[in-house]
Amino acid sequence: MPFVKDQLDRDLLALLQANARESTANLARRLGVARTTVLARLARLERDGVIVGYTVRLGQDVADRGVSAYVGVTISPKSAREVTRRLSRLPELRQLSSVSGEFDYIAQLRADSMSRLDALLDEIGEIDGVTKTTTSVVLAVRTDRTG
């Protein structure tokens, strides 16, 4: 189970969320601890599943060049593992959530063009175990608190 040990862990995580590319030497200096302490904390946080990856956030002009869509995915019984595995391989997949209600999953996709989104939807529809997809293309983002 993910575990944040103390204030040092919280401070380290806050610095990484602001800049995941910050060097361990700079992190150590800003936190007032030894570089080896930062390395040990990072290793533990990664091992414990608190940190599961590092990412890049694109500037708004770059992000605006593509197309985003939410895809409701309905699957057949006992196909969840394979469908999840196949969807996770798509580089355009931003988030995959299992949900209650009409769909089994909601996939958030980000493609560089409508034609690429169309091809992605075809790929998703051809995955063994996917019985139905319903797509909503994002026309405009009204509020964004993710970044």
Concise summary:
This protein is an alpha+beta fold.
Describe this structure in words.
12% of the residues are buried. A hairpin with a 6-residue loop joins strand 2 (93-98) and strand 3 (105-111). The chain has 2 domains: 7-47, Arc Repressor Mutant, subunit A, CATH 1.10.10; 60-137, Alpha-Beta Plaits (2-Layer Sandwich), CATH 3.30.70.920. The protein has 6 helices and 4 strands; from the N terminus they run ααααβαββαβ. It is elongated and about 55 Å long. It has a 4-stranded antiparallel beta sheet with strand order 2-3-1-4. Helix 2 crosses helix 3 (35-47). By secondary structure, the chain is an alpha+beta fold.
Observed structural traits:
single chain, 147 residues, alpha+beta, Arc Repressor Mutant, subunit A, Alpha-Beta Plaits, 2 domains, four-stranded antiparallel sheet, 6 helices, 39% helix
Q: Give the beta-strand count.
A: 4
Number of domains: 2
The first-to-last residue Cα distance is 25 Å
Helix segment count? 6
Biggest sheet, spatial arrangement of strands: 2-3-1-4
- Helix and strand run: HHHHEHEEHE
- Tell me about the biggest sheet? 4 strands, antiparallel
Which CATH architecture of the largest domain would you pick?
2-Layer Sandwich
CATH homologous superfamily of the largest domain, by name? Lrp/AsnC effector binding domain/regulation of amino acid metabolism (RAM) domain
Which regions have little confidence, pLDDT < 50, spanning 5+ residues? Answer: none
Label the structural class: alpha+beta
Task: Output the radius of gyration.
Answer: 19 Å
Keywords: DNA-binding, Transcription, Transcription regulation
Pfam families: AsnC_trans_reg, HTH_24
GO biological process, one term: response to amino acid
Protein name: AsnC family transcriptional regulator
